[in-house]
Amino acid sequence: MGATGAVGRVLARVLPTRGVVWERIRLAAAPEDVGRTISIGGRAAVVEELTEEFFEGVDVAVFDIPTPLSRRWVEYAASRGVVVIDNSPVFRLDTDVPLVAAEVNPLRVKDRPRGIIANPGAITLTMVDCLATLHAGWELEMLVVTTLQAASGLGRRGMARLYDEIEVVAGHRELGQRPGDVRRLIEHELGESVFPGPLALNVLPMVGDLAQDGATSEEAKIRDELRRILGLPHLPVAATCVRVPVVSSHCVSVHARFGRRIEVKQARQALIESPAVVVLDDPEHAEFPTPTDVVGSDPRFAGRIRQAPDMPRTLDFFLSGDDLRKGAALNMIQIAELVRADL
Question: Which of 48, 77, 218, 283 is 20 to 30 A from 90, alpha carbon to alpha carbon?
């Protein structure tokens, strides 16, 4: 469901690379895309309308549709006996819906009393493999993160808006030197934005809707999702979420405190041995993760691993990962494969 969106398109590319052959693949999307043909590993599938009849004979359904529509269609599909994997935030905090990061808590897929499994948010999936590895060795006690989130976090419309803004500002070398000049030009040329301000030549320290205590819904979501997946219900988490002018792939700057003394060399080796993590950590030779280098890749990438003086129980590091791939599509496919093995 949502086969023609940003995540759906990546899912169609990733699915045939997994070595698992599904008997039948059906696609549904918005009315304007019904009738389109999409090739998945050489198999042609025609996009259908999302209707109640669509779910007849379906075993597993992967949803990435607008949040206002999710509850109705997810619950309906589950009522028909379909195991549903949903990428919206609607069910992520429901205690009777497992929140699954495939490499961290895969056994949770077996406990799905409502027939629904929630896919974590992309930023959570960018961090959680590394955090789980370090928690297993040194007992995570506190977390402070600053996220650098790409335009793709808002799907096709976010990426399209960034490209449009780049076209508007290109060639104007005088921009960004006077207050408001970037904003005035972009708003004059493009009008209302999906972002709370211009993104080209800019950063926006506001991702999500304003929630309690001055935090945003995105910042609260990071805290709540990490607590659930790591099994640390009282973990202190402070997050600041920033939208940056990157097309795709999120980054996170992490400061973590642990219950036991941790050494950089040992932490780096633990991350190297983590199957879902690639360590790029040679800053003397400019080797560290950046979004333009990791986009299109499955693992999460870690670098700038270091420790502040006189803080032997802390670790600082930088992460980057493709938010549309592992941050959404790949993890949902991995969950579907776990469900398939359990059916």
Answer: 48
- Of 153, 256, 128, nearest to 204 by C-alpha is 153
Amino acid sitting at position 183: R
CB within 8 Å of 162: residues ≥ 6 apart: 151, 199, 200, 245, 247
CB 115 within 8 A of CB 84: yes
What pLDDT, on a 0 to 100 scale, did the predictor assign at position 240? 98
Residue 6: CB partners within 8 Å, gap ≥ 6?
152, 155, 156, 159, 324
CA distance 63 to 71: 11
Distance CA 143, CA 236 (A): 6
Cα(267)–Cα(180) distance, integer angstroms: 44
Decide if 235 contacts 227 (C-beta within 8 A).
yes
d(CA 4, CA 28): 8
As a residue count, the chain comes to 343
Q: Which residues sit opposite 239 in a β-bridge?
A: 145
Residue with tokens 């926006």: 204
* Alpha helices (runs of H) in 46-180, residue ranges in sequence order: 67-79, 122-138, 155-169
Residue type at 243?
Answer: R
Q: Which of 6, 318, 263 minimizes the C-alpha distance to 156?
A: 6
pLDDT in the model for residue 212: 79
Cβ contact 163:199 at 8 Å: no
Residue 61 has pLDDT above 90, yes or no: yes
Sequence-ordered list of residues with C-beta below 8 angstroms from that of 179, at least 6 positions apart, any chain: none
* Domains of the chain, start order: 6-120+328-342 (3.40.50.720), 124-323 (3.30.360.10)
Is the entire prediction scored with pTM above 0.85?
A: yes
- Which residue in the block uniquely carries the two structure tokens 């950590």? 281
Q: Phi and psi dihedrals of 227, rounded to 5?
A: -60, -45
> What are the DSSP calls for 18-30, one per residue?
SS---S---EEE-
pLDDT, tens only, 90-103: 999 999 999 999 99
Q: Which residues, including other chains, have CB under 8 Å from residue 213's CB and lie 6 or more apart?
A: none
**pLDDT score of 329:** 96
Chain centroid to CA 264: how far?
Answer: 27
